[in-house]
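>> received
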Amino acid sequence: MRREFWRSPIRGPWLTSVFGLVLLAGVTVVFVTGLLSYAAYNPDLGNDTTPDKGLLGFYLFDWPTHPAWLYRLTQGLHVTLGVVLIPVLLAKLWSVIPKLFDWPPVRSPAQALERLSLLLLVGGAIFEFVTGLLNIQLFYVFPGSFYSLHFYGAWVFIAAFAAHVALKIGTMTRALRSRRLRDELRTDLAHTRPEPADPDGLVSPAPAAPTISRRGAVGLVGAGSLLLLVLTVGQSLGGWARYTALLAPRNRNPGSGPDGFQINKTASSVGITATDVGDAWRLIVRGGDRELTLTREQLLQLPQHAAALPIACVEGWSTEDQHWSGVRLADLADLAGLPAAANVLVDSVQRTGSFRSAALRDNQIRDPRSLLALRVNGAELSLDHGYPARVIVPANPGVNNTKWVGALTFRA
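>> returned
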């Protein structure tokens, strides 16, 4: 609780502001791409169970299908940048840790409000980064839906973040102008000196001898972020870089052949049996007062179309373009008697697990690349890739490209 306890001679407004500036830019991009990911799920069609989003869903819009790699880009950026910012976040928390132990904790109403905003800011940042990391590493340990927790946590955090920026932008600007970055990067350990005393109390009143320069601190954080970038970004870039994505659960080479690309959930993990997808399997197509029942052979007799599309997942991983073939969703809407369907509900035959159904918008139905896929890369779908039929839609989150489809309900 004593200011003299914190003795680092490099802690001060300038170093804190350098890390803060990086977080200001990075967190803004992560938040915006997170909002885009939420919109891509078509939550107002029932794909999301987050209750009472109300005003928080003010920005939702019809998620586009062009370009086909849009979700691969936005979600890859969201996850990769979030991981890369972890060393910067930790460094920023280290740089201001004396303020977290101010005593007495409350000296005035204004200071109490500032402390409350700091609690929401620090707590929100830790919560969002930790839950995001657990999700992309496939550790489902959440006491409820990850999507609801991450959604509400993001809004709490960003509100505190915006308030903090409004309060500190002047201080940060003055601190950054007080020292030239070029000069600091030229200053070695022997010439490192404490910053002048500051009104916020970040500079130690009893600094110890330096054991690292500010140049070293910035370099250390930058090297940590670069290392995390190398160990993560390959899951989104693909190609040779996929082999460097050692921190990504989906980086591993899934094998060769037409079905040798990443799998989100296997058939066995969601209880798919041979009975579900065997000779007795039928696709039910509904629309208005019309209902059709089609075998796989009948689907193969319908006009077949092809599309080269990737799969991109909320966890940040994605595949290169795979060559799919099957029946256009628009053609199935015609068969159902609703060529101008407003949306379609896609139901899987899986009995357990999440995302057993998903809804698609009218623009997704009409896109000529949106298919009920029966084959991939010139071969029949494998069981884990959704045999006997799966949906594939450009720019659609992976879990909404429903596998093991059992019914399509087109709705006006």
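>> The chain has two domains: 3-244, 268-411.
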